C-alpha cells in the first residue's frame, strides 16, 4: 500500500510546479476537469510519443488514425452505447450528492451525510449535444466515450487505401469523454481524458495466441515507463463483469496512492463491432484474403491505455523523499527519457556578464540538439538544484570561472550534477551533447 497522504503531496507538487491545475480554478473549478501546465504537457507528450514509437512506428503492421470526436449518432446505436453504456447511480435525498452504487459498501445510506439513498438507476455516461441550425432541426450527437468506433468505421478506408494483410492494427491517440457520476482521485477518474489504443484485426482461430502476445507487449511497455513487477498486476475480468462486446478482458492495475487501480486493459472484442456496423450501415466491412480469395469479418483485440492515468502513475513512481547534504528534499526520479526537462543550464553567478555570456552560448548550442533543456539563473545555486530536482530534471550544468579558464587545465569544462545522487563531475563542453543524449536514449 502506498504511503498515506502521498496523493495530497503529489497534488500539491503538481500545482506548485506547474504540472496540473484545477480546471476553471478562478471560478471555483468544475469537478472532473483538469488543465495541464507546461511541464504536464511536456510529460504527456513524452509518454505519448514513446507509446507511438513502441506500438506504431517500430512496427510495419500498424496504421495511424485521428478520427473525429463527433460522429453520426447511428455509430453509437450500432455499437450498443446508446442502450448499454451506463453505470448504476444512487442519489442522497438529504444532500443530493450522487454516487456510483457499485462503489459503495452500503447502498442505503449516504457515505457523506448519512441520508437515505435512492434505488439504483442506470445512468448513461455519454455526453449529449447537438449539431445543426437554430430553427429547431438540430440533430442529437454524442461526444465519443471511446476511440474504438472511429477505428471500426474507418476499417474499410484503411483497407482500400493501404491494402494491409491480416493481422494488422489501427492506432489512435485522442480525447474521450465520459459523464462520470463521481470524479475522484485527482486526474485518475475524470470526465475528459486521452486514450492511447489500437484495434488489432486477426483471424478468429489465432485470437488466443495473439492475445498472449499483446499481453506480453503490454508488460514490456510498462517496463519502458520504469515500472517493476511490484507496480503492475493483472486482473482477469470474470463473466458478467466484462464490457458487452468482450469475450475476454485482462485489466492492468498500477499501485496508485488510493489503491491498485486500472491503468490499461486488453480486450478480445471478437467480430462484434464490425458485424454490428455491417448490419446497421449496410456497408461491406469484410476482409478479402489475397491468398484464398475468401471474404471474412476479422476478429479484434484491443489494447487500451489511459494517458492521464499513465502520467499520474509515472509521477507516483517517481516521487521520492530523501536527505542530501544533510537536508531533506523532494524530487521526481523520472527515467531521463520521460523527464519533461532533460537538463538545466546555469551560470554560477547571474551578475557576472562573462559567466552569463558563456552559459548562454552553452545553452543555445545544446538547445538546438536537445529541445527539452532550460535556462535557470533564479536564486542561488542550491535553490536552483532543489527546484530542478523537484520537477525531475536529471542533470544540471553549471558554467563557472573554471569554464572561462581561471584554471587553464579546466577551460571549456562545466560541472555536470546528477539529480539522484547529487554527485558532480567536470566534463568538456564539447562532450555535453553526446553525454546527455546517451542518458535519455531508450
UniProtKB/TrEMBL annotation:
<dbReference type="InterPro" id="IPR002314">
    <property type="entry name" value="aa-tRNA-synt_IIb"/>
</dbReference>
<dbReference type="InterPro" id="IPR045864">
    <property type="entry name" value="aa-tRNA-synth_II/BPL/LPL"/>
</dbReference>
<keyword id="KW-0547">Nucleotide-binding</keyword>
<feature type="domain" description="Aminoacyl-transfer RNA synthetases class-II family profile">
    <location>
        <begin position="8"/>
        <end position="347"/>
    </location>
</feature>
<keyword id="KW-0963">Cytoplasm</keyword>
<dbReference type="InterPro" id="IPR027031">
    <property type="entry name" value="Gly-tRNA_synthase/POLG2"/>
</dbReference>
<dbReference type="InterPro" id="IPR036621">
    <property type="entry name" value="Anticodon-bd_dom_sf"/>
</dbReference>
<feature type="binding site">
    <location>
        <begin position="262"/>
        <end position="263"/>
    </location>
    <ligand>
        <name>ATP</name>
    </ligand>
</feature>
<feature type="binding site">
    <location>
        <begin position="306"/>
        <end position="309"/>
    </location>
    <ligand>
        <name>ATP</name>
    </ligand>
</feature>
<keyword id="KW-0648">Protein biosynthesis</keyword>
<dbReference type="GO" id="GO:0006426">
    <property type="term" value="P:glycyl-tRNA aminoacylation"/>
</dbReference>
<comment type="similarity">
    <text>Belongs to the class-II aminoacyl-tRNA synthetase family.</text>
</comment>
<comment type="function">
    <text>Catalyzes the attachment of glycine to tRNA(Gly).</text>
</comment>
<dbReference type="Pfam" id="PF03129">
    <property type="entry name" value="HGTP_anticodon"/>
</dbReference>
<keyword id="KW-0030">Aminoacyl-tRNA synthetase</keyword>
<dbReference type="Pfam" id="PF00587">
    <property type="entry name" value="tRNA-synt_2b"/>
</dbReference>
<dbReference type="GO" id="GO:0005524">
    <property type="term" value="F:ATP binding"/>
</dbReference>
<dbReference type="InterPro" id="IPR022961">
    <property type="entry name" value="Gly_tRNA_ligase_bac"/>
</dbReference>
<dbReference type="InterPro" id="IPR033731">
    <property type="entry name" value="GlyRS-like_core"/>
</dbReference>
<dbReference type="GO" id="GO:0005737">
    <property type="term" value="C:cytoplasm"/>
</dbReference>
<feature type="binding site">
    <location>
        <begin position="188"/>
        <end position="193"/>
    </location>
    <ligand>
        <name>ATP</name>
    </ligand>
</feature>
<dbReference type="InterPro" id="IPR006195">
    <property type="entry name" value="aa-tRNA-synth_II"/>
</dbReference>
<feature type="binding site">
    <location>
        <position position="100"/>
    </location>
    <ligand>
        <name>substrate</name>
    </ligand>
</feature>
<feature type="binding site">
    <location>
        <begin position="178"/>
        <end position="180"/>
    </location>
    <ligand>
        <name>ATP</name>
    </ligand>
</feature>
<keyword id="KW-0067">ATP-binding</keyword>
<comment type="subunit">
    <text>Homodimer.</text>
</comment>
<feature type="binding site">
    <location>
        <position position="146"/>
    </location>
    <ligand>
        <name>substrate</name>
    </ligand>
</feature>
<dbReference type="InterPro" id="IPR002315">
    <property type="entry name" value="tRNA-synt_gly"/>
</dbReference>
<dbReference type="GO" id="GO:0004820">
    <property type="term" value="F:glycine-tRNA ligase activity"/>
</dbReference>
<dbReference type="InterPro" id="IPR004154">
    <property type="entry name" value="Anticodon-bd"/>
</dbReference>
<protein>
    <recommendedName>
        <fullName>Glycine--tRNA ligase</fullName>
        <ecNumber>6.1.1.14</ecNumber>
    </recommendedName>
</protein>
<keyword id="KW-0436">Ligase</keyword>
<feature type="binding site">
    <location>
        <begin position="302"/>
        <end position="306"/>
    </location>
    <ligand>
        <name>substrate</name>
    </ligand>
</feature>
Amino acid at each position: 500500500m502506498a504511503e498515506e497522504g502521498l496523493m495530497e503531496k503529489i497534488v500539491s507538487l503538481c500545482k506548485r510546479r506547474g504540472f496540473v491545475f484545477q480546471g476553471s480554478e478562478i471560478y471555483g473549478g468544475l469537478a472532473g476537469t483538469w488543465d495541464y501546465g507546461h511541464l504536464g504537457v511536456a510529460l504527456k507528450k513524452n509518454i505519448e510519443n514513446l507509446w507511438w514509437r513502441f506500438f506504431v512506428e517500430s512496427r510495419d503492421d500498424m496504421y495511424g488514425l485521428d478520427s473525429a470526436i463527433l460522429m453520426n449518432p447511428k455509430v453509437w446505436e450500432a455499437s450498443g452505447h446508446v442502450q448499454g453504456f451506463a453505470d448504476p447511480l444512487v442519489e442522497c435525498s438529504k444532500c443530493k450528492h450522487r454516487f456510483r452504487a457499485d462503489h459503495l459498501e452500503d447502498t442505503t445510506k449516504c457515505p457523506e451525510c448519512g441520508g437515505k439513498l435512492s434505488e439504483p438507476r442506470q445512468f448513461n455516461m455519454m455526453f449529449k449535444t447537438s449539431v445543426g441550425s437554430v430553427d429547431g432541426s438540430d440533430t442529437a450527437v454524442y461526444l465519443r466515450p471511446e476511440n474504438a468506433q472511429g477505428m471500426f468505421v474507418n476499417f474499410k478506408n484503411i483497407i482500400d487505401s493501404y491494402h494491409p494483410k491480416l493481422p494488422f492494427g489501427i492506432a489512435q491517440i485522442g480525447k474521450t469523454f465520459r459523464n462520470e457520476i463521481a470524479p475522484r482521485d485527482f486526474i485518475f477518474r475524470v470526465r475528459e481524458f486521452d486514450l492511447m489504443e489500437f484495434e488489432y484485426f486477426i483471424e478468429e482461430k489465432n485470437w488466443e495466441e495473439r492475445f498472449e502476445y499483446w499481453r506480453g507487449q503490454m508488460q514490456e511497455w510498462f517496463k519502458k515507463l520504469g515500472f517493476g513487477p511490484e507496480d503492475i498486476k493483472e486482473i482477469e475480468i470474470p463473466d458478467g463483469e466484462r464490457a458487452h462486446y468482450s469475450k475476454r478482458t485482462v485489466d492492468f492495475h498500477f499501485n496508485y496512492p488510493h489503491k491498485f487501480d486500472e491503468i490499461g486493459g486488453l480486450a478480445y472484442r471478437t467480430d462484434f463491432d464490425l458485424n454490428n456496423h455491417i448490419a446497421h450501415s449496410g456497408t461491406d466491412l469484410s476482409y478479402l484474403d489475397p491468398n484464398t480469395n475468401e471474404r471474412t469479418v476479422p476478429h479484434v483485440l484491443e489494447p487500451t491505455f489511459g494517458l492521464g492515468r499513465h502520467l499520474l502513475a509515472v509521477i507516483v513512481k517517481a516521487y521520492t523523499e530523501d536527505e542530501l547534504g544533510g537536508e531533506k528534499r523532494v524530487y521526481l526520479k523520472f527515467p531521463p527519457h520521460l523527464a519533461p526537462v532533460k537538463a538545466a543550464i546555469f551560470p554560477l553567478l547571474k551578475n557576472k556578464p562573462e559567466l552569463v555570456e558563456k552559459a548562454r552560448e552553452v545553452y543555445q548550442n545544446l538547445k538546438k540538439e536537445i529541445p527539452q533543456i532550460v535556462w535557470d539563473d533564479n536564486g542561488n545555486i542550491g535553490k536552483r538544484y532543489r527546484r530542478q530536482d523537484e520537477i525531475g530534471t536529471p542533470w544540471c550544468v553549471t558554467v563557472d570561472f573554471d569554464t572561462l579558464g581561471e584554471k587553464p587545465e579546466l577551460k571549456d569544462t562545466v560541472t555536470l550534477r546528477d539529480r539522484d545522487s547529487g554527485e558532480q563531475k567536470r566534463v568538456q563542453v564539447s562532450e555535453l551533447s553526446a553525454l546527455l543524449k546517451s542518458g535519455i536514449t531508450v
